[in-house]
TrEMBL record:
Lineage: unclassified sequences, metagenomes, ecological metagenomes
Organism per entry: hydrothermal vent metagenome
Chain positions covered by the region annotation Disordered: 1-20
Designated name of the protein: Uncharacterized protein
Amino acid sequence: MACKKGGTPFRAPPKTQTKKITIFNNKKPIKTLLQKHLR
């Protein structure tokens, strides 16, 4: 979902990644997000 919203691959710079993870951490666990993107 993050990649679609941003329009760029999940492999973003550390700054963007941290921001995205922090935002998603409030909604969904980071582990689930990482697993989804890794697959």
